[in-house]
Amino acid sequence: MKLNTSTTLAALVLIGVGGFMAGRVSSPAPAATAQDGPAETRSSRSLSSSANAGNTDGQKSTRTTRPERDAAMTPKDRLTKLESIMRGENALDRNRALLAYIDQLGPGDFEGAVAHFREMGMTDSRMGEYSLLLTAWAAADPLAALTYTKDNTREGFATNTILTSWASADPDAAIRWAKANFDGDGANPYLAGIIRGIAATDPALATELLASMPRSEERGKGLEALLPHLLEQGADATKAWIAALTDPSLKDGAIMRSADKLAAIDPAGTASWLLANPGEASQRRMDDVYSAWAQKDQQAALSSYAALPAGQDRTNALRGVIANVATESPKAAVSMLDRYPNDVNDRVVQSVVWHTFGEDPSLAASQIARIANENQRNQMYRRTIGNWLENDPASAQAWLQKNPLPEAVQNELNRRQPGQ
To answer: Of 30, 58, 194, 278, which has fewest CB within 10 angstroms of its CB?
Structure first.
């Protein structure tokens, strides 16, 4: 069967997507671990259409006339040829040959080809080609493809790849199938693949599907698939979309996943946005945003930090700025620890140590005593001094002679040294 341009591009996009793991033999097990969950719908489109899984309307529109099949090739010959293609080491030649091979397959040939591919044990090392083969099967016969992956694979990669392809051509049919084939508790594991397939062309429907899911790993995957397309519309559009979310966990997840991307474009605006949306996500991303800002304009970031009121936001902002300062001037970073003691917590000190160690290990190690938590302080000593002893034992031992460590830490470091 001949793949059209949009189908081929969809498959190639899937090559770089790490949201799902490769399928293995077993039955699917819907996961329900905590990630990000529902929000209020932003589309008036109804999802209450009939769950008629047998309706394949629209799938024929993705199919084009394929070249004449080589009648001389037996099914066994085709599988042998597939294996020969997949054993090739040149990725470009391999993909070209696979596309030509797919053009010669009829709808009934795909199950054998996919099964043989999986038997070769190459689904991890040839993930892109596996995605391409699954995508082509979805274009030829999505129901047969889904029946096979449901019965023979696990972890969702194969099924979601097929659903992504099918949804890009016929979202209504893919949604009906997903609803008809899931009757368990928690999030529908099939919706993430569908969201990926429609995120670029129908973000409103993708948002509605996301809103229908409870907080779960599947919803987190759906959010990860949708956000890049929202970010393409610009920072204001992305922030407006997030502002419309009413579920706190979904909003937090969206802020967490988008803040670093927005900071790369407009760190000052992103910092203001986080401050206007207090919560766990803004707390966890504040230092990243200020670090990105300091890389572009250190003085502006430092001035903004200094103007913040006392509290966790100010401390997190300091952590971001000081990490950038430390990579340029370890002494300046330590001077900041002295200048702003009320904003320094253990994480700020740890950041300074890690970012100054490569340039000035003696100065970095001398700051560890500032860490208030004993367990964290001892762990930092073990990791920092242990690394120093491996890379420059003479200078590390000289420092240790003048700076005795806690007995438990010293004993552990001694055990690591040869001859101790």
So the answer is: 278
